[in-house]
Structures are given as structure tokens and as C-alpha cells.
């Protein structure tokens, strides 16, 4: 079947952005796959998805706007004027930072609309030949690197800068842990970035250095902290605002690597209007080109398990062999979470 809708339907859907249209098409293909019905054209499936959204909207007793603050296993958290609510994503693909509308049906909130993304940050998803969203609607991406422990890895900065450039946000480089620095010349590798127009801010979350400068630059903006595990993203966020109290972790002595303390992205609205998003550290940029299948191969307990759907995300699908293995103990909850985290990281 064609993977594109007809010109006629495209004309009717002219009011949608390209991203919204892509999303709609993707959902239509998913719905078709799930039903196993191959007779109808993609146009028909797209129209069914639209009708489904309209039905949900029509049944909703109440609709609220909000910002997606975290993604849980089966639900998402949405900050609304009524506080934080749990909602089901349905088959909308959403990410932290998304502006959404949620509708209440009986006691359940459902996402009914995802607003067009102003900016986005995504990593290449080599496995799918596409991209994997990290966060949406941020003004600034703060690339956090550290010195000494973990050591400075400037190459990661380049990859992030390309991704930021593609997604429309502005970059900032934050060198954390400068309290550990014995030789200031170590920071010379960052001079070209500053000369290229990227703000480079030397910080110590521990000694409260550079935080004021960072705060001044980012006041009132929506900001995401990204970088390797253990560089101090959560510590910086905490230094930014005492109200946060995010968990921070250790850096293993032997390898100078972080211990993946933060496992999910979370969005926090500060009282001064700044919005901060903390993200889990990426393991190494080598993983950037690893595929989801390669992660799966690292988990012997799931070999030979089968899922009903070929593109199963192992989160909510019926007939998922992995969820069944978790349910009956063949795979531990902890290993499952590790696998899902790695999948999210590499994809
Ligand atoms: N010396 C020094 N240590 C710091 C500084 N900032 C953070 N740390 C320490 O570095 C370790 C890792 O900090 P986290 O904030 O958990 O790092 P993270 O980037 O959030 O790590 P993940 O959540 O695993 O991605 C903790 O032990 C912090 O106390 C700093 O400015 N100087
Ligand atoms: Mg963290
Ligand atoms: Zn599955």
C-alpha cells in the first residue's frame, strides 16, 4: 500500500503542518497494522484516525490545555491549570515539552490533540532511518559537559550542535565541575565554539559558580539540560532552583562515568517563569548509531519471545511477549526497565 495520502485528501488537510500530517499518517499506518485489514487505502485510514479523535473530543466532558511533563509506562503527566493530571496518550506519539489538549471521559484523561512543535530536539534513529524525539518546544538546549570526572568529551558537543541546529532551538555549552580543574588550559578546546557564537559558561554546581550567569541567560525561557551521565545535569538544575530537589548520583571512581541516576526526562515550571527539563544522561555517543535491535540482542532472557505486532514498543500492546515475560517473572522488572531505557537512549 502507498505510504502517502492522495493529493485530494492532502488539500483537505491543508490547515495541518507537515509534522501533524506525518503524525496522522503514522497513526493511520499503525491502526491499519493493528487491525490487519489491508483492503482500505491509506486515505481511508487517515480519515478513520481523524474520526476517532473527533469521537473522543465529542465524548469528552471537559478539555484542558497543558504541557507534558513526564512519560510513564502507560500514561503521561500533564501540567494543567488544574495541576498535574495523568493522561493516556492513545496513539499519539508525544514527548516531554509537548503542548497538548486532554479530554476527560468518565474518570480518564486522554490526549486529544498535540499542538505543532515550535522547536524540537531529536537524535538520529539509525534503526528506523528516522529520528527519535528527545524533547519539544524548548528555547535553549544546554549541552552539559564536565571536566576531570567524567573527562571532557568535545566530540559529543558537535553531534548535539547539529541536532540543535536541525530542531530550531538555541545552544549553550555549560562546562560543569570547574572546581576540579587544575589546568585552565584544558578549556581551550572550547574556544572555537565561543568564537562560533555559542555561549560557553564555566560552572560549578558544587561551589555555585557560573550559576548566576546561566540563570541570567536562561531566565523566562524553556530549557533542557542534555549530556553524558554524571556531568551534573541534575545538580545544575538543583543549583538553579532550590525548589527542585532532583536526585543526583555518583560518578564511578574507576571509569569516571556516571551511574545513570536520572532515568526519565522531567519538566519543571519554576516560579520565575523559567521551565527546566532534566534528561537522563546518554551512555556514550557510540550508542548514537546503535540500533534498538542491537540493544535487544544484549538481553538473553528475551531471545525467542514474540510479540503480536512487528513494531511492538513493548509498552502497552496486547500480545506483547516481553510484557508477558515480565508479568510471569521470566524477565525481572528491573531488567525490563533497563532495556527500555537503553532502547530509548539508542533510538
Ligand atoms: N566536583 C563537582 N562535582 C559535581 C558538580 N556537579 C555535580 N557534581 C557531582 O557529580 C555527580 C553526578 O551528578 P548528577 O547531577 O547526578 O549528574 P547527571 O548529569 O544528572 O547524571 P545522570 O542523571 O546519570 O545523567 C554527583 O555526585 C554530583 O554531586 C560540580 O560542580 N563539581
Ligand atoms: Mg541526572
Ligand atoms: Zn512487545
What can you tell me about this protein's structure?
The chain has 347 residues and is α/β, with parallel strands linked by helices. Helices cover 30% and strands 22% of the residues. The protein has helices at residues 7-12, 18-35, 42-59, 154-167, 191-195, 211-218, 233-240, 292-297, 321-327, 333-346; strands at 62-71, 76-80, 83-88, 99-105, 108-114, 120-125, 130-136, 140-146, 170-176, 200-202, 222-226, 266-269, 275-278. The strands form three sheets. It has a six-stranded mixed beta sheet with strand order 10-9-8-11-13-12, sandwiched between helices. Strand 4 (99-105) and strand 5 (108-114) form a beta hairpin. Helix 2 (18-35) packs across helix 3. It is globular and about 70 Å long. It starts with 6 loop residues before the first helix and ends with a helix. The mean pLDDT is 86. Magnesium ion is lined by residues 233-234, 261-262, 278. Magnesium ion binds next to helix 7.
Features:
13 strands; binds zinc ion; 22% strand; binds magnesium ion; single chain; six-stranded mixed beta sheet; 347 residues; binds guanosine-5'-triphosphate; alpha/beta; globular; 10 helices; five-stranded mixed beta barrel
Amino acid at each position: 500500500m502507498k505510504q502517502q495520502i492522495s493529493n485530494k485528501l492532502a488539500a483537505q488537510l491543508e490547515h495541518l503542518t507537515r509534522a501533524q500530517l506525518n503524525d496522522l499518517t503514522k497513526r493511520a499506518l499503525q491502526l491499519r497494522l493493528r487491525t490487519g485489514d489491508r483492503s482500505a487505502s491509506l486515505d481511508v485510514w487517515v480519515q478513520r484516525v481523524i474520526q476517532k479523535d473527533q469521537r473522543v473530543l465529542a465524548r469528552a466532558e471537559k478539555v484542558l490545555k497543558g504541557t507534558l511533563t513526564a512519560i510513564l509506562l502507560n500514561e503521561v503527566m500533564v501540567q494543567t491549570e488544574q495541576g498535574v493530571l495523568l493522561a493516556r496518550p492513545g496513539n499519539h506519539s508525544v514527548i516531554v515539552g509537548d503542548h497538548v489538549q486532554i479530554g476527560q471521559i468518565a474518570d480518564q484523561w486522554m490526549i486529544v490533540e498535540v499542538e505543532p512543535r515550535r522547536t524540537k530536539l531529536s537524535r538520529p534513529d539509525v534503526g528506523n532511518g528516522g529520528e527519535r524525539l528527545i524533547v519539544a518546544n524548548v528555547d535553549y538546549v544546554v549541552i552539559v559537559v564536565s571536566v576531570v570526572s567524567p573527562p571532557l568529551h568535545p566530540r559529543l558537543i558537535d553531534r548535539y550542535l547539529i541536532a540543535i541546529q536541525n530542531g530550531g532551538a538555541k545552544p549553550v555549552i555549560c562546562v560543569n565541575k570547574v572546581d576540579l580543574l587544575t589546568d585552565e588550559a584544558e578549556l581551550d578546546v572550547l574556544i572555537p565554539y565561543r568564537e562560533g557564537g555559542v555561549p560557553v559558561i564555566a560552572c560549578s554546581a558544587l561551589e555555585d559558580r557560573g550559576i548566576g550567569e546561566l540563570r541570567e541567560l536562561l531566565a523566562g525561557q524553556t530549557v533542557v539540560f542534555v549530556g553524558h551521565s554524571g556531568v551534573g545535569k541534575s545538580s545544575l538544575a538543583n543549583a538553579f532552583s532550590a525548589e527542585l530537589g532532583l536526585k543526583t548520583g555518583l560518578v564511578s571512581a574507576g571509569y569516571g562515568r556516571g551511574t545513570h541516576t536520572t532515568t526519565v526526562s522531567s519538566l519543571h515550571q519554576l516560579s520565575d517563569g523559567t521551565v527546566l527539563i532534566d534528561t537522563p544522561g546518554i551512555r556514550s555517543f557510540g550508542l548514537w548509531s546503535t540500533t534498538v535491535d542491537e540493544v535487544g540482542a544484549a538481553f538473553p532472557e528475551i531471545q525467542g519471545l514474540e510479540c503480536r505486532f512487528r513494531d511492538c514498543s513493548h509498552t502497552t500492546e496486547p500480545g506483547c511477549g516481553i510484557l508477558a515475560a515480565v508479568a510471569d517473572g521470566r524477565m525481572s522488572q528491573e531488567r525490563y526497565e533497563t532495556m527500555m531505557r537503553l532502547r530509548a537512549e539508542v533510538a
